[in-house]
Amino acid sequence: MKNKKSLGQNWLKDRDILIDIADHASVDDSDTVVEIGPGLGTLTSALFKFFDKVIAVELDDRLAENLPKSFPGKNLQVIHQDVLSLDLEKLDLPKKYVVAGNIPYYITSPIIQKFIHAARRPEKIVLLMQKEVAERLAAEPGDYSILGLSAQIYAKVTLGPVVSREFFTPPPKVDSQVVILEPLDEPLASEKTMSLIKLGFIAPRKKLATNLTIGLKLSKEEILQKFAENNISENARPADLTIADWVALEKSL
Ligand code: SAM
Q1: What's the number of CA atoms in the CB half-sphere (13 Å) around residue 122?
Q2: What backbone phi and psi angles, to 5 degrees, belong to 83?
Q3: Which of 119, 189, 207, 210 is exposed most, by the fewest CB atoms within 10 A?
Q4: pTM higher than 0.90, yes or no?
Q5: How far, rounded to the nearest angstrom, does the alpha carbon of residue 101 sit from its chain's CA centroid?
């Protein structure tokens, strides 16, 4: 089937890799998975090894129409829709459910934000995505970005296996990697801290003190005083602070 580049259609057919991804998604106490972008159904098939029910959300007309034909007798619900406009409240979801998918790269960040902030958060979100983005999501202090912080404040982030580009048809320009996000019961920082982080990253490579002087309209001396109180180096870049540093800084500001 001809692929639509605009929908990020790169098919993955290696059975062992697909089973490995589905295995990462499996949890003891949930039998339902929401799959994002099932495409030709290769990951769907692997997911059925670990889950009784798959709710597959596919935007492409032909794919959404054809998918049920590949799974006769299986508990498959196909939703022909943009996953970003999916109303989770309207789905027949059990208390505990999982989200999985070999996702279209162009909406990686909105997909993550949608599910980690959902009123009914999944137990686990297991996504195959561009390797560089996976690394940014799981980054540590020194390499933090808004993307990484805004994920790690709301979920435990773990890296899974790397999937080389040659396993895809057609092969994309980059390698992929599985990311496992486990939403936390309570976020590690408040909305206010998140707003401070956004100000701090206005110019990611500049010194944090410079960004905050501009963003908060405070003098450099005032900012550096707060840094000293919280043991933050005056030369720190936005990427250097831990989540705990951001929380402490926001409180003292
Ligand atoms: N799961 C299949 C596989 O592993 O071979 C296909 C993965 S392909 C990278 C991404 C899939 O997401 C495609 O089937 C594409 O049509 C679908 N898709 C793209 N944008 C979407 C959206 N906004 N909502 C739901 N599905 C989407």
Answers
A1: 28
A2: -60, -30
A3: 119
A4: yes
A5: 11
In whole angstroms, give the CA distance from residue 2 to residue 14. 19
CA of 9 to the centre of ligand 1 (A): 6
- Rounded to the nearest whole angstrom, what is the distance from the C-alpha of residue 200 to the centroid of ligand 1? 34
Nearest Cα to Cα of residue 238 among 196, 205, 190: 205
Query: Looking at ligand 1, which atom is closest to the CA of residue 60?
Result: 16
Strand pairing partners for 126? 100, 180
Probe residue for ligand 1, chosen from 6, 71, 102, 177 as the CB with the greatest number of ligand atoms within 8 Å: 102
Helix (H, G, I), strand (E, B) or coil at 84: helix
Q: What is the pLDDT along the chain (253 residues), one digit of tens a residue?
A: 678 989 999 999 999 999 999 999 999 988 999 999 999 999 999 999 999 999 999 999 999 999 999 999 999 999 999 999 999 999 999 999 999 999 999 999 999 999 999 999 999 999 999 999 999 999 999 999 999 999 999 999 999 999 999 999 999 999 999 999 999 999 999 999 999 999 999 999 999 999 999 999 999 999 999 999 999 999 999 999 999 999 999 999 9
Classify residue 143 by its DSSP letter.
Answer: S
Q: Residue 158: which H helix or E strand, with range?
A: strand 155-163
d(CA 78, CA 58): 7
Q: Answer for the pair 188, 134: CB distance below 8 angstroms, yes or no.
A: no
Closest C-alpha to 34, from 47, 19, 46, 21: 47
